[in-house]
Amino acid sequence: MKKVKILLLFALVMIFGVNLLANDWEFGSEGGHIVPMNMSDIAIKSEKLHFKLEKVKGEYGLESEMVVTVRFVFDSPEAGEKYIGFITPEGGNEEWDERDHFKNFKTSVNGQNVSTKAYRLTDFAPKDVKQLEEVKKYYKEYDEEKAREDYEYYKKSYVYYFKANFKKGENIVEHSYRYDGSGGVGYNDFNYVWSTISKWKNQKVDDFEVIVEPGSALIAIPEIKMKNGKYVDWKLAGEGNIDYGYRNYYDRDGQYKVLYAKLKKGYLHFKTKNFSPEDEFSLSEIAYLNGNYYFPEKTEKGYKYRDNLTKSAYSAGYLTADELKELTNEDLKIMRNYPYAVAGYDFSDKKLKDYFSKFLWYIPIGKNVELGEDDYEVVNNVDKIIKSRGK
After folding, report:
1. Is residue 303 in some structural domain?
2. What is the mean pLDDT of the segment spanning 160-184?
3. I need a surface site. Which of 12, 94, 236, 382 has the fewest CB within 10 A?
4. 381: containing domain
5. Cα–Cα distance list, 54 to 22, 63, 259 (Å)
6. pLDDT tens-digit profile of 29-86?
């Protein structure tokens, strides 16, 4: 799958005479982020954020989408009519691939559902590109030409906004949507910008909670640092394998600590007071174990990702005679059962179960598992090799 290189903006914006951007993400993005030009006098008292991975039927079979649900409690110093908007790219842009990346958007204010109207972003954005100073903070290498290119793209986007009557004191804003992120060979990236919390009064969320519900997916979440020097400490509510490892990221310097998780049931969660993040949230779904996702040799607890036998399983039909000689029947048995292990087959054979239990992704779920066409091809290829030996 080709990585989507688009600036997909989808940000909660509070507009009080100037652009004030809350903490929602630009997905599938390889560029900058529009941020507020001024501080807001409204504080975020609490935020509960829920990410849920779901499989949906797509053009190429089952595809992953992230369902995002957010509940904000804002503290407003005064009553009045406010504008809340959501920015999304314009489908006719030449960089846009015409797919519906963002779907099923719903929102309510203080329990009342609201409808949206669409306006060009230029109705709200500064007309002078020089005012995009805040954008610089989101570029490691910045130049005026790049800024102007992004500005021209932003101008083609829309703001979907609605009017809301805020009362003095607490106001509840809830919204939900789903999106398909960006992808590479064997993995899908889902990201969320929440560092713009710093643009609100007090530059923090008083009470913050985030839940990640990955379903049966194998996921990776890079370590997230907060401005108090601490890190997000994920807890498992349920059953499954979770552990930390270290890897390099293309957009970060050096090695970063990453949480890997494969759950049988439940979710990951984190809850804290005075939340003020320094790093953004990102999650990778590792959809295909022989894809291009780089996994550390082993995790802190010693879990592995794959070894020579599991790497060779999908090339079993193309092994040379010399390579075949190196494989024992026990090796071939492991290769044959690799697709079943990935699918969660609960082996009765203790040797097989012990072997696959050293991999973080192996979560036995039962005997009735479903394999794909490629998986059956692996099984058949290994069976042919065993048969050729006359055993």
Report:
1. no
2. 81
3. 94
4. 308-388
5. 25, 8, 20
6. 322 233 333 446 888 899 999 999 998 887 767 888 899 898 999 898 989 877 666 5
